[in-house]
Input
Amino acid sequence: MSQRGVDQDMCPTPQDGGCQDVPTGLHLPPGAFYNNNIGTCTADQVIESDQLDYDAGTFVWSGFDYLGEARGWPQNTKCRGTLADVAGFDKESIHWFRSWWLSNISRSDAGRPLVNVDDEDDLWTLHIVETWIEIPGKTTRTINVYTNCPRVTLQLNGKHLAGFVEDVSFFGMATFERVPYEAGNLTALGWDATGKNLVASHSTFTPGEAAALSLSIDVPSVATGTGDAVLADGEDVAMLRATLLDSNGHLVPSNGDHNISFRIVSGDARVIATHNGDPANISPNHSPWVPTYGGLARAIVRVTIDASSPFRHRIAEIDAESRRNVRVRVESTIDPEDVADIVVEATVAVGDRYITARVTVPVTTDLSKSPLGLATASGAGL
Output
């Protein structure tokens, strides 16, 4: 079990019921029971099945955190997700799987996942697990890097850190103990087997104060195979990501002290759910607002017009106030104004001012853009 955004230095001995040996002066959010580094545990368990000739693969339980089966209040979510939290935000361990189950697989291998097949960046994965912030009472940090690069070195504020070199074994990772802390930019450099050719890099930055808000679309996304628009069928949804940023555009890992509100500016849609990935989040999931967790907040927006099938008839949904939740179009011709794109706005209070961000979600009536249509298209060449 793991928890996004909780570094090993913050929670050295995770266990059911809460982190132990938390550094004095470090205030973790309520419900912090685990940390984000499960690379060794994951490797040990994957190897158990991978080394057996009669096994075809490994079953990962589970892909996402999920509501219920919590191990102690205020957690209300099971932290069993290996790839993502309950809001669908990547956990750090997703980069371990990307290292060995995507970047490590030859382009000619029939078992290679059919994602980003033309992306050269898929050849190497390199990701620093920890945030680069100061831990009270400590002058050094433990840094873990998930990667398939044979060798990893570190730079701090552009300067090479002598002695910090790690060779990475198969299904392994790079771990650096007692890395001297200095605010700024920590960079991991990945090298090929010769140790001479730089093939990948990843940087993490010490965040400043919250100063800006970014609102982006995770779904639909061509990069993840979820298309380029939501379908106007009264059911399709978009998954939006609000990110709290400092003045340099770096993520501010805020926990609970910044509330994000979402609203529909235009288009036929509703904000039907919000979350932040916090396993101890107690905000109502159906509300249009949620506090940040690790600097992120999620909104799920649902289209409220069915205009994708001219002669399709459906029972219009109603809520407790007998208000139609889905507007149905049954005419043979569709007015383009009825399928306008959806504009969503997010707002956060920072100090004595409000910061807003907007994003436009494309909408289509093309049934080939439905989840089933996209799945059919992706398998057409098999």
The chain has two domains: 39-205, 212-370. Helices lie at 39-50, 94-101, 371-378. The longest strand covers residues 159-167. The chain has a mean pLDDT of 90.
